Structures are given as structure tokens and as C-alpha cells.
Amino acid sequence: MRVTILGSGTSTGVPEYRCECDTCQCARRPGSHNYRTRPSMHLEVEGLHLQFDTGPNFLDQIDRCRIHQIDAVVYTHAHSDHVAGTNDLVMPCRKQQCDMPVYGPAHTLDALQRSFDYLFTKETFAGGGVAHLVPHTVEGPFTIREVPLTPIPVDHGAVVTVGYRIGPFGYVPDVKRFDTGSVDLLKGVEVLVLDALSFNPKHPTHFAVSEALDVIAEVAPRQAYLTHMMHRIDHYRFPEQCADQGLTLPENVALSYDGLVFEL
């Protein structure tokens, strides 16, 4: 199993527009791990190439990370930072000469079909300028080409949202509270990628670092990476920042970054 973190930022990305903080200034330098596009991830497992979410940076992300195959797209929820680049699936569909299966909660697929209705009919596909998407509603555990996926229901405000477990790997980029039993669905994973927006536990829809660390301790993965981070988190000063907040950073927890690749 090979995981590529395509985007590790929050909905605004980093650097933030017109922000001159140290993190944003660092993010503007070539090669900085503080440069963060909207959250997205690509997974290769048993010859299957799965794309998780298609935000506004989607096409640039898959080009920059040299993603040459997408067999299906799996959506976590319908917020713009996760779906706004859906139209750009035209390029994978065109290059691969295929229809694209898309998976997600009913609420998410409904939102996609309202916003991108022309992608769900063969009539507009005839001209070749758009993708053709084939929807599959996620209501519980399912398989894609015999690869099992388990949706992880989470509370992320008003929008129906799920994370996913794929064998030894868990991905939950947007969460404020876990539903009853959801943490148990993650227990036993080797690697967990988890939402940690900032150090502010009062944010209504995202984990703070402290809240993410609590869940990581309960799940007990071999390695955990934080994602969906805003500019309050500095990749190069993170241990120091944690210490300033009175947090002990476990050795198995690190920040993800755009272009991070790891294998299980």
C-alpha cells in the first residue's frame, strides 16, 4: 500500500491570502513544507488507484505528484475544499478513456449532481470536453475491485462527513467529534492521518492538536500524521509550538505535508 498526501492544508490553503505571518512567508519559499494546498490523498493498493476528494487544487496536485492513474474517486463530504475540482476529472477520464466511478455518502453525491449535473449524463460526455461520472452511494462497508473500505462516520458540523479505513490505514481529514463506535472502527490501523486544524479546541468543526492527540492515543497506531492544518501550525517549529501549549508530542506523531509519500 502506497499513500501520497496531495494536500495537507485547510480550506484557505497556506499561505493565506495577504498574510505575512512567519508560516505564510515560509510557505512562499520554494520547497517549503509549510506550503499547503486543500486536503486530498491518493492511495495505491493491490493495483487499485484510489483518489480521495477532488478539491480546487486537484489537477495541479495530481500533476505535481505524478499521479498517472485514477480508478475511482472516494469522497469524504461535500464542502468546497473537497469537491470544487470535480470538473477536472475530465483529464483522467480523457487520458484513460474511461468513465469514472465516484463513491460517497448520499448527501455528497446529491451535492455533486446538483453542482456538476453535466458530468452525470452521457449526452454531454459525447463532446469529449467533460468527464462522465458513475455514482455509488456509500452506506456502510463496501469494496472497490475486491479492496474493502470501511466508512468512519464523524461529526464535522452540518454536512454529512465520513473518514475511511482501508485495511491497516485510516484517513479522517475533517472531524470535530467521533460518533459512537467510530473510534473503534479505527483501532488496529498501523497508520492514521487525522485532522488537526490548529491549537484552538474551541473551533466548532475541526480538531485541535490536543484533541487529535487524544484520539491517536486511543487508536494507538504505529504512526500518525496530522493534516488539514492552517497557518497557525508551523512545520518547522511544531515540537516547540506543542511545548508552548503544554502538549507532549509523542514520537509516533508528525505533520503531513504536500507530497508526502509513505508505504505500509
Alpha carbon gyration radius: 18 Å
Measure the end-to-end span.
Answer: 5 Å
Share in helix = 10-25%
In the CATH scheme, the class would be Alpha Beta
CATH architecture: 4-Layer Sandwich
CATH superfamily: Ribonuclease Z/Hydroxyacylglutathione hydrolase-like
| Major sheet characteristics | 8 strands, mixed
Total number of strands: 15
Residue ranges: pLDDT <50 for 5 or more in a row?
Answer: none
Mean pLDDT: 95
Per DSSP, the total helix count is: 9
- What is the domain tally? 1
Q: State which percent range the strand residues make up.
A: 25-35%
Description:
It is a single chain. The chain is an alpha/beta fold and 264 residues long. The chain has one domain: Metallo-beta-lactamase, Chain A (4-Layer Sandwich), CATH 3.60.15. It contains 9 helices and 15 strands. The strands form 2 sheets. Strands 7, 8, 9, 10, 11, 12, 13 and 14 form an 8-stranded mixed beta sheet that branches. A 7-stranded mixed beta sheet has the order 6-5-4-3-2-1-15. Strand 13, helix 9 and strand 14 form a beta-alpha-beta unit. The longest helix has 11 residues. The radius of gyration is 18 Å and the shape is globular. The termini are close together.
